[in-house]
Design goal:
Number of domains: 1
Order of helices and strands: EHEHEHHEHEEEEEEEEEH
Oligomer: single chain
Number of helices: 6
Shape: globular
Length: 201
């Protein structure tokens, strides 16, 4: 069973629908006992960094999510804001992130050519083998909507990069923890392929 953590931010039902298309058993829950009994956990997120962390800390799920990832070491996937909060902090606010991975989030610099947010379809360059990229088409493109990007302090955590004014980290991994800056649930067959790989871990 994959549980989607409902902490008040994120497009929960589009994520659930994509996971169901991938053949997964899935439920949305704000119950810590469901989190701890899950086989895999998905951490969605859309919007402001501080608001996301505040909602997570108020949700009553923080302890269960930490235990799931760090003690049980079961697979967890963060999407967009849900990926950004896996790190330590963001220029978008002052709240501390989960701190599971050593990275921070920085804001893109706007220009005439590159507007903020980075919104639309972008290619990814897989730079490190990862289980969530199993069977992924070399021409895979994913849908992005974000104004801040992940800057890893440890290059070993970067599993893919993309281009938008700069070369930036578009997916991270450390052991049982994955994060994608892009939205697989909005990325059609490429997103479905990634979700199948996650479901089959």
């Amino acid at each position: 069973m994959i549980v989607i953590a409902n902490y008040g931010v994120g497009n929960l039902y589009s994520v659930k629908n994509m996971l169901k298309k991938a053949g997964a058993s899935v439920k949305i829950s704000a119950d810590p006992s469901d989190i701890l009994s899950a086989d895999k956990l998905l951490l969605p997120g859309v919007g402001n960094y501080d608001y996301g962390m505040q909602m997570l800390n108020k949700s009553g799920l923080r302890e269960a999510i930490d235990k799931f990832a760090l003690d049980y070491k079961r697979p967890i996937l963060g999407i967009c804001l849900g990926a950004q909060i896996l790190g330590k902090k963001s220029e978008e606010g002052t709240e501390k992130g989960l701190g599971w991975l050593d990275f921070e989030c920085l804001k893109f610099k706007s220009s005439d050519k590159f507007k903020i947010p980075n919104m639309g379809w972008r290619s990814i360059k897989v730079i490190k083998d990862s289980l969530i990229f199993n069977n992924l088409d070399e021409k895979a493109r994913f849908y992005f909507v974000h104004s801040y990007y992940i800057k890893c302090n440890e290059s070993k955590n970067i599993i893919s990069t993309s281009e938008y004014s700069i070369n930036f980290c578009s997916a991270v991994n450390s052991n049982n923890i994955w994060g994608t800056q892009f939205h697989p649930e909005k990325s059609l067959r490429y997103g479905l392929s990634l979700m199948k790989s996650f479901a089959n871990l």
